[in-house]
Design goal:
Rossmann fold; about 375 residues; seven-stranded parallel sheet; alpha/beta; six-stranded parallel sheet; 13 strands
């Protein structure tokens, strides 16, 4: 089975989509080594950028193709013209092309697989940027219906794709990400911080989190209680300037800070210093920080929207993201109710063990086989 995967979303500053892509490739290579005659997988990792280069050493056992074509140029050609085909661009033939985002990776003969993590860009295109705003809302329906199979990371996302894009359920496969290979942390830091990790964009409800934290800070100060620090981590966007400015003014000044994008190799250390992780997003197709926090045993407060309830289950507190007072109360409970926080830790550790990359790799391999068969039958 010859498979081409588009690695570009993971090329630099990996967010949730990039991390899913990166870890999926590693899991596929581990689960289906080149010498496995029973389940053969000839995997090619594709990248293209004018200045960022693919590190081939990350993917022993895979072929890599790295073209010096600007991302924006290639996206325009692929999205709007469906050209150049994968075979033309790489000089190779494939059975499957796998796009890591909702729009097809063009091919003349290969089956098409796309990954759709969420459809928030349909309801709120104003929250998106660049090619996402220009192409996704207008093209995603047609591309999804042409895809031989669609991979999603949650049951919530599967329902969104089925109903909003009118795609038959049998062509949609839920392939949840796996938990990181981390052992639980040894202890809870007594002076730990409240952590938000994610791209600073409107969908993440950063403004609502800051409103909630202002209420928490004010209430704790009036009661004479210790105020834990708020740490915001993740890539800044054009929309984030107003939120970052708030950190320089009372009541958040000196109790909140922004640390920027955190490299994947340093994320475990960031989580280990937290007493609670807060994910107040208006919508998530999965919510990787929730799973990462549970894997280490960090309690979680998350929004009761999108896939977050599906991921968190009973291992933390779910709140209305449009109610800052509810977010503040949930954070306070985790911070100051040690017995409840310990129960969240135990349930989170148990829940995280159900998310495994080896299982994800097997599911995705089956999706590839189904896509090839669907393409063959459609061409017959």
């Amino acid at each position: 089975m010859r498979v081409l995967i588009d690695y570009r979303p993971a090329l630099r500053e990996r967010s949730g989509v990039g991390e899913y892509t990166h870890q999926l490739i590693r899991a596929l290579l581990a689960a289906f080594p080149a010498n496995d005659a029973a389940r053969p997988l000839d995997l090619t990792v594709f990248s293209s950028s004018w200045k960022d280069r693919l590190d081939a050493s990350e993917f022993a056992g895979a072929s890599t193709i790295d073209r010096r074509v600007p991302v924006q140029v290639l996206n325009l050609l692929w999205h709007r013209l469906g050209w150049p085909a994968a075979e033309t661009l790489t000089g190779r033939a494939f059975d499957v092309t796998h796009s890591s985002h909702p729009l097809l990776l063009p091919a003349r003969a290969a089956a098409h697989v796309v990954t759709i993590h969420d459809l928030n860009f349909l309801a709120h295109p104003e929250r998106t940027r660049a090619e996402v705003r220009r192409d996704y809302p207008s093209l995603v329906r047609a591309h999804a219906r042409r895809a031989d199979r669609i991979i999603v990371s949650s049951a919530f996302a599967a329902g969104e794709v089925e109903h909003q894009l009118d795609v038959p359920r049998e062509r949609i496969a839920v392939c949840e990400p796996g938990a990181p290979d981390w052992s639980p942390r040894a202890h809870v830091p007594p002076d730990g911080y409240v952590l938000f990790l994610g791209t600073l964009e409107p969908r993440k409800n950063v403004g609502g989190l800051l409103d909630a934290y202002e209420q928490l800070v004010t209430g704790l100060a009036e009661a004479g209680r210790h105020v834990p620090e708020l740490v915001l981590a993740g890539k800044a966007t054009d929309e984030s300037r107003a939120w970052l400015d708030r950190l320089e003014r009372p009541p958040l000044k000196d109790v909140a800070r922004y640390v920027g994008y955190v490299d994947p190799a340093k994320r475990r250390a960031l989580y280990e210093g937290a007493r609670v992780v807060v994910q107040p997003s208006f919508e998530e197709g999965f919510g990787m920080p929730v799973l990462e926090a549970m894997t280490l045993g960090v309690p979680v407060v998350a929004a009761n929207r999108g896939a977050l309830p599906e991921v968190l289950g009973d291992a933390g507190l779910l709140v209305d993201p449009e109610q800052p007072a509810a977010i503040a109360a949930a954070m306070a409970r985790v911070l100051f109710d040690a017995q409840f926080a310990a129960a969240c830790t135990a349930r989170g550790l148990a829940r995280a063990r159900h998310f495994r990359w080896d299982r994800t790799a097997g599911q995705v391999y089956d999706v590839y086989r189904q896509a090839i068969e669907h393409r063959r039958c459609a061409s017959a």
